Amino acid sequence: MSKDKDERKRPQLRLVVNNVEKRSGRPVAGEDDFITLDELILRCHEFRGHFYAGVGRLQEKAYRSLERYLERKGWAYGLDPMHGRLMVIPAGLVCPEAIVPDSPQQDEVLVFAGEDLTGVGLCLSLEMIIPFWSDDDAVMEDALLSAPILPYGMLFLEENRQDSYLDLIYRVALPIYPPAPTVRVLDKLFAVARTELAETLRTLADFSD
Questions:
Q1: pLDDT in tens, the chain (209 residues)
Q2: What is the greatest pairwise CA distance in the chain?
Q3: What is the Cα–Cα distance from 107 to 110, expressed in whole angstroms?
Q4: Which end of the chain is less congested by CB atoms within 10 angstroms, N or C?
Q5: Residue 14 near residue 204, CB atoms below 8 Å
């Protein structure tokens, strides 16, 4: 039985390519609400006012620091004011191993600055959908169990609202307190994400072979 299960599961976990409409890093309520990553980047200045409207002082400070940091690095990014104020970054900039050769799809890394559970500061979260999937929930559960144990971030499964399949998601969260996050803190956040995402992608590539 174990052998049959192994033979069944391995071909079913596959790299996501050419299906951007089914694998978006941002939640959508309908097609009209969805704005592609390329468009968010192109219209970043246009969306900035809406993005910051009504944002708390500490949250705005954190996002402004993030914008300056990304601009100094020369990284393209978008501001999504429609789904909880998300900063959206091409995944290949954060983790080059996330680039799928010869694929028109461009995965996203989402960054969100929200209130920390303690109520005395903020929590900076970075999240990405791992681009491996199966329409068999059991295979996705096996993939989660086979993925590496990460020292800083975590992996979890969440249902994709567009097709009801499970997505494997990476998330790392970093509590920050006033003032806004420093360059050193942001360097650490993105270094952790790159290392842990690369390790996860390598492991799941071996799992899917």
A1: 344 444 433 446 776 544 445 555 676 555 556 788 999 999 999 999 999 999 999 999 999 999 999 999 999 999 999 888 999 999 999 999 998 776 666 789 999 998 887 778 899 999 999 988 888 899 999 999 999 999 999 999 999 877 788 999 999 999 988 778 999 999 999 999 999 999 999 999 888 76
A2: 58
A3: 10
A4: N
A5: no
